[in-house]
Amino acid sequence: MTERTATRTEPAYGEILRLDELLELACVNDEADRALFLSAHQACEIWFAVVLRHLEDVTDALSLDDGATAAELLERLPRIITVIIEHFEVLGTLKPEAFDRIRADLGSSSGFQSVQYREIEYLCGARDTRFLNTAGFRDRDRRRLRERLAKRSLSNVFLEYRGRAGDRDACRISDALHEFDDSVRALRLRHAGIAELFLGSIPGTAGTAGAAYLRRSASRTLFPELFDRRASGTGG
């Protein structure tokens, strides 16, 4: 053992990642199928948090007329969504009987109740307030969503930025917003595919139409103020 190792003061890898706390909270110690199902959803929520942080920083950058930073952050988001889609691919490896068993344990809980996903929609500009009444949301969940609604949307901030900056970086940002929007549509379609694989025409756990609802949601844009001609509504 070197002197540097013996007297090390820098935090170790596991300490930086707070792995002891993370793995204690994660569902990795359940039986294998359940661990896969729940951990995939936990991982998606972590990535949703990362997406939210990026979108918040994009909004701040545009407010400061820093289009280059906004574009760089936005261009990263479709790759993050691709990672989230891969979690659904892993879920597709479950056997139908395992999925049915896990789903029965969930009761009425559902990914439809993902507050962070609704925050992403509200932050971007898809502000269907009907989702405030989602069954299973806690008071603090609705409070978070109302706080998002009280702030300017990314769509609105971008329109104001474009009015000030003209074409400088605006085309690049618009292209990045389109690509991110399309990647989220792809995520919804993959989610619909998984729902069709395991549920068929059975309603979703949160009382939605299941796969049919998810397929309809894929036609909707995150940015109705920007891409009205591509949208058939708001929400997700």
From TrEMBL:
Which InterPro entries does the record cross-reference, listed alphabetically? Trp/Indoleamine_2_3_dOase-like, Trp_2_3_dOase
Which terms does the UniProt entry file under GO BP? L-tryptophan catabolic process to acetyl-CoA; L-tryptophan catabolic process to kynurenine
Q: Which residues form a coiled coil?
A: none
What keywords are assigned to this protein?
Answer: Dioxygenase, Oxidoreductase
- Name the chain's protein: Tryptophan 2,3-dioxygenase
Molecular function terms, GO-annotated: heme binding; L-tryptophan 2,3-dioxygenase activity; metal ion binding
Q: Please spell out the taxonomic lineage of the organism that makes this protein.
A: Bacteria, Bacillati, Actinomycetota, Actinomycetes, Pseudonocardiales
Tell me, what's a Pfam family for it?
Answer: Trp_dioxygenase
